[in-house]
Structure formats: structure tokens, C-alpha cells
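Office hours follow-up: a student asked to see two folded examples consecutively, so here they are.
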Amino acid sequence: MNNKTLPLNPKPNILIKLILYIGLAVFYIYGVFWCITRRNSVKSTSDVLKVFYYDFLKLRREHVLIEKSTDQELITISINPCPILKLSLLLRVDTRYSCKLISETACKMVLKCLNPKLIFTRDYSYIRPYSNGCREKILLEK
């Protein structure tokens, strides 16, 4: 981040929080309806890539960099044009706050729907706009 840009606010005011909670509600409701026909449809981390990243999040293959892929673990870096990033920059809200609230909440719910043994984590030390992408790890418990 250069010196000419204002720092992003890690503690938004009540109006900004209301806007973010509306974003959460929209994303969460989309996730609930999307999950209805896909419950328990993921058996492996390669399924996660297809079903979660490409089908649910609608990311293009070139926007999902695979850092690690094993039978039990998938680590990706997303470089897609992200609506939550755009909203955060518009509202001047720190993405470490807005993504944890909106994206992480909905993504955890969807992944548990796809397979209750999936565990989602995001690396908040590697997230846009502070990095060139957003790193996420999805583990499949044995």
C-alpha cells in the first residue's frame, strides 16, 4: 500500500457494519440455497477445488493458484476480481475485518455442508490489498 492511500479502518462505524452485515446476509443466503442440492458432495480436496472454488465461488481456473494439493490439504491463493475486496476498498474497511465477517462465515458454512470434515482457514497475513492474493487452506479431517 503506498503512502498516498488512506489506511483501511480495522474498526468500522455502525453504518459501515450494517452494510457489511447486509453483504454477509446476501452471501450466506446464496450459500444456503446453493447447498440444498450439493450436501455431502465433496469426498476429496480435488472435489473442493471444483465444487467450492469453481462452482460455488464462480472463480476461473486462472484466478485460483494452487500452492499445495494433497489428499488431506488444499492451499490456494485467489487472485480473482473480488466483490468483497472492492466493497472493502470502497468503504475503506480493512479486509482482515470484512473478509473474516462476510467471506469466512459463508465459506465455512458452505464447506461444512459439502462435507462436515472440511476445515477452512484464511491466512490474514497474506490477503489483499496487502498481498497480491488471498491465501486459504482447506483441510479434510480423517
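And the second, which I mentioned at the end of office hours:
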Amino acid sequence: MIFRITLFAALAFTVACGTAKKKETDPTMKVINFQGNVHKPYCGGARPNPDVAAGYYESMKFEKFNILKGKTFTEGMEIYKEITLDVEGNAIFNLPVGDYMIIRADKYLSLEEFMKKNAPMEDKNYKIKGTDCFKTWKNTPEMYFTVENDTSIELRQKAKCWVGTNACLEYVGPPAP
């Protein structure tokens, strides 16, 4: 009886290892190492040293993205894969050879929900550029890329002072001292 259990366990282990190895060596799937970060500028205050004046990069920790197949974005496209970045702004996933787009997951909200999430409450220090700006921003992928081999991809976005990466918001308040 013990021999049968041991034999069965060994057989199950061998099959599992063979399946895992097949998945790793699938020639149609390529490993993608993705990193997302945002450059944040120096926005005023005390006189900075040169390093501080240059701004800094911050990871897009826990940001969610959708991956779409193709070279041209159309509203409502089918999502091929969903990824969530880790605390360091990284994700590792597999894709077959082809052309892809990455778009923030919140851009799949309705236009009203997207605007509500990304437009502040009424504030005299901010100017909202309008519905057309939000519609254009919502329908613009963060990046396009082609997968031919295992590869590393980096998404770098540039933030602006007091509005971050929001393309449809403009700070009109007083300048920093």
C-alpha cells in the first residue's frame, strides 16, 4: 500500500514538472518584465540642491493596467490581459509574439466615472479643460509595443506640479514661494 502511494506521488510529481516545463519552454510565449514609474518635478519651496531640482522617479505602485492586442486603439476594445504592478512598480507576465497597447484600467470606466475619478471638486486653483479633453485622454493608450522576444519594457510618465499625470487639469493657483 505504501509502495502504491509513493509510486502515485512520484508519478504525479513527474507529470506536474513536465507540464510546468512545457509552459516555460512554449516558443510562442515571451516573458515580459514591465516597470512603470512617474517623474515628479521639483515644485518649489526652499532653494533646492541640484539633485532635488532635477525631480525624482516614483514607482507606479499597485497601478492596474489592461493590455490590448493590436496597433490601433478603438474605444471598448477587448482586454487581452490585466496586470497589477507591485509595490516597486513591476510586473512579470507572458505574451505571445505580436503588437500590443497598455492602457490604465480606469480608462475602461464610463466617461462620467472617469471624469469623476480624475477631476477635482470645484477649486479656484484648478482649471478643468473639459469633456473633450477627458474623452481624448481616456481613449489614448499609455504606450504601444511589439513583442518579438523576451523583453523588458519601461513606462515612464511625466507628472506636472500639483496635477500629476492628469492631462486635463491645469493648476492656476499661486506659484510656490
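Two things to take away from it. Confidence is low (pLDDT under 50) at residues 3-7, 19-23. The CA atoms of residues 49 and 55 lie 11 Å apart.
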